[in-house]
Known about the structure:
globular; three-stranded antiparallel sheet; alpha/beta; eight-stranded parallel barrel; 12 helices
Amino acid sequence: xxxxxxxxxxxxxxxxxxxxxxxxxxxxxxxxxxxxxxxxxxxxxxxxxxxxxxxxxxxxxxxxxxxxxxxxxxxxxxxxxxxxxxxxxxxxxxxxxxxxxxxxxxxxxxxxxxxxxxxxxxxxxxxxxxxxxxxxxxxxxxxxxxxxxxxxxxxxxxxxxxxxxxxxxxxxxxxxxxxxxxxxxxxxxxxxxxxxxxxxxxxxxxxxxxxxxxxxxxxxxxxxxxxxxxxxxxxxxxxxxxxxxxxxxxxxxxxxxxxxxxxxxxxxxxxxxxxxxxxxxxxxxxxxxxxxxxxxxxxxxxxxxxxxxxxxxxxxxxxxxxxxxxxxxxxxxxxxxxxxxxxxxxxxxxxxxxxxxxxxxxxxxxxxxxxxxxxxxxxxxxxxxxxxxxxxxxxxxxxxxxxxxxxxxxxxxxxxxxxxxxxxxxx
Length: 427
């Protein structure tokens, strides 16, 4: 999903020139699907940026343990402070797929129920920091107070890899340190971190292009790129492979179906990558990214989204890549403006997937500043035992974000009230 336009009004070109919610045992759940241009991602500025002299040096980020922070900009120093452990919080579980359920190390059924925390995908590449708002202990406690058991963290591959056009204060080792510190802080509160790749490299000028004037990772692209995305996931997996409480979400919202009218070709592109119809760059398919993760020895739970901005899972079972670790779940996004936004559609398109594999609705939301739609989605997903995370824990305008909170203390918007009260009511 894209963030509100006001975030994009800030000059990206100038910046570049500087260069389950509670993981609850058992329960019923359902999912919805997304279609339109995702409401979650912050709208990227489309100012053209000339060709990157940056083949970029990738920050290693390959340590098996979380690296210590070094030289973070003042705005992000709080993110590197030692995590304060909540004595009441149990450590988050090491999740794995078992049939169509998620289970913990004891075999108990779990669900990922929580929120998204946007910012890591756009602040760095815009030269404005690493996170949008605080990620200190108080901010994590505010999330925990909603009884959220999972937080999805959107990231930017160019910032993680430290490409040379990104301000080094917000890239490479500094970016990795901020992310790993946030992960540690979430875990100290018993919250499952979901590391997700949101913005990627590659010039795209086809259908639904969001920033056709630049190849940089300043907006959503239809698919991951072969040039950098496998290296990103190799590094992320190396960083977190010894912490199986961390979940990997391979790519935010694929939309190869907007680049071609051939749906079969779009799904083949989704799985296999390569030269895809209508896409200007070489694509890394889901099979390549999953193999990059598993080649490191990481056995963490991996989420793989569908097409149509993660709203369409109809051929997910047909094209799902083989996982040697047997630890995959399907990821689905659902907003009131998506094509599949009714219970009858859920029954037809989602139920067959949920019958075979775990389903995580990585983003649910609506642009009404109300919660009527997500109330229906949560009820359907609850009935199926599926997982869901609300978009988004950021203080934006709930009609354009949509945003769950009106301040960093966790005061809900009219939209956020629905998710907060639902999560609290499940305890």
